[in-house]
# Entry
Amino acid sequence: MIGFNNLDEINIDNDRLWQNFKTFLFSMPDMISQIVGHKDDNPNELYYSDYQEKYKVYSKLEEYECELVQDGFLKFGVIHLIDNYLEEVFIHNAKLYSVLGKG
# Structure
């Protein structure tokens, strides 16, 4: 298990949630994985996609923007992990951001 140097949790108004998520996503390295799951899923039960170019990941997630932002049963995010370097932006089902970093 990798530890974190940085963990910030941010509460953002729902009407600005997607725009802020998009900003965080595009600030990440080029290759990322998407994370999607049910509110009760443990980290090992979440769906992690293969690593893809971040614009491709964003395009896929954007198709479900309304559901991801408004459905309290969903949590989602993106991750980039290589060796001991980690960046993750994760939106909990309560629509609270977690921004994690290790590097």
